[in-house]
Design a protein that fits this description.
Elements lengths: L5 E3 L12 H13 L4 E3 L4 H4 L1 H11 L8 E6 L1 E2 L12 E2 L3 H15 L4 E6 L8 H13 L3 E7 L3 H8 L6 E5 L6 H4 L2 H7 L3 E5 L12 H17 L3 H10 L6 E4 L4 H9 L7 H12 L5
Parallel strand pairs: 1-2, 1-10, 2-3, 3-6, 6-7, 7-8, 8-9, 9-10
Antiparallel strand pairs: 4-5
Helix pairs in contact: 1-3, 3-4, 4-5, 9-10, 9-12
The structure holds NADP nicotinamide-adenine-dinucleotide phosphate (NAP).
NADP nicotinamide-adenine-dinucleotide phosphate (NAP) binds next to β10.
């Protein structure tokens, strides 16, 4: 069954629209009005400011928290004046870091639980048994409900899954990045009932960078948008929605109209040939 989109908040703060508290409240309510209740964050968004900005809206309107699900991520240490202690960008999936991040996110969102915590990037020094212990403890304390990863390889997921249930995997999947179709990530999600979430589902820079690949994709998507009588955005998401793993797109628009379109893309059933036309536009050639 197709899964409704997750709403990505990366561009809602200082990395994008810089919404004020009222605007956060409005867009959260608008998303809820169309049944979209899951919001994707990371500790680093807005150089560590977007979680707290979003949290102000939850504090301001205390009816919101119980209606929404919050995903957030930890494990990237970003170089920014907001974290002067960091001397270099690095990854940290130690138990202490995961626990500290979760505790900070709880404060930022003015909540006592996070629905889903993801490890944002694979940390070479990650000890899977240590991760398992802290995740199990945080679940037991009621501070997190589910756990997953982002941008991991299949072998990294396999190793971690020997010690702790990996319930979600968020990777980049779109017409400009179809690696997950071939590298085993989606097969692993299907076979192990891991929810597959796609970040940048519209294609990183699709509308701003005029690369040959982007132009080919947009040309084909426009042809199909006429055939199916829907927008190009809907065609780009309908491509992902056809995959049997039931990819959950994490849509990054700051415009409610485009968020509505993302939900409506669930209603489009591309035929197989049209899926393969888009794939050929992405790769530049037909399948062998
Ligand atoms: N796990 C990770 O490593 C990772 C990495 C990156 C992102 N993420 C998550 O994934 C979410 C989505 O990422 P994303 O924002 O890159 O996704 P996206 O949905 O692929 O792209 C959204 C961007 O495309 C623009 N856009 C969409 N349709 C357009 C059109 N027809 N014409 C012009 N511009 C258009 C949007 O502008 P408007 O705002 O004007 O609509 C927005 O800037 C993020 O919010 C974040 O939660 C996760």
């Amino acid at each position: 069954m197709k899964q409704k989109p997750i709403v990505g908040c990366m561009r809602w703060g200082v990395w994008g629209e810089n919404f004020n508290t009222k605007q956060y409240e409005t867009i959260i309510e608008q998303c809820l009005s169309i049944g979209l209740d899951t919001f994707d964050h990371a500790d680093i968004y807005g150089h560590y400011t977007t979680e707290a900005d979003f949290g102000e809206a939850l504090k301001n309107n205390n009816s919101l928290r119980s209606q929404i699900k919050i995903i957030t991520k930890c494990g990237i240490n970003m170089l920014t004046p907001n974290r002067p202690i960091h001397e270099i960008k690095s990854y940290n999936a130690s138990a202490a870091h995961i626990r500290n991040s979760v505790e900070t996110s709880l404060k930022n969102f003015h909540t006592d639980y996070i629905d889903t915590i993801l490890i944002h990037r694979p940390d070479i020094l990650m000890n899977p048994e240590e991760v398992a212990l802290v995740i199990q403890a945080l679940k037991k304390e009621g501070k997190i409900k589910t756990f997953g990863v982002s941008n991991f390889t299949t072998s990294q997921v396999n190793l971690l899954a020997k010690f702790v249930a990996v319930e979600h995997h968020q990777v980049e999947i779109s017409l400009t990045n179809i690696a997950a179709f071939d590298n085993g990530v989606l097969n692993q999600c299907y076979g192990n009932k891991i929810e597959a979430q796609s970040w940048s589902p519209m294609g990183n820079g699709m509308f701003t960078e005029k690369t040959e690949q982007n132009l080919r994709i947009l040309f084909t998507a426009e042809e199909l948008s006429i055939k199916y009588n829907v927008s190009v955005n809907k065609i780009l998401l309908a491509f992902l929605y056809l995959h049997p793993v039931n990819i959950v797109p994490v849509v990054g628009s700051t415009k409610f109209e485009r968020i509505i379109e993302a939900k409506e893309a669930m209603n489009i059933d591309l035929n197989r040939e049209d899926f393969y036309k888009l794939l050929a536009a992405s790769t530049g050639h037909e399948v062998a």
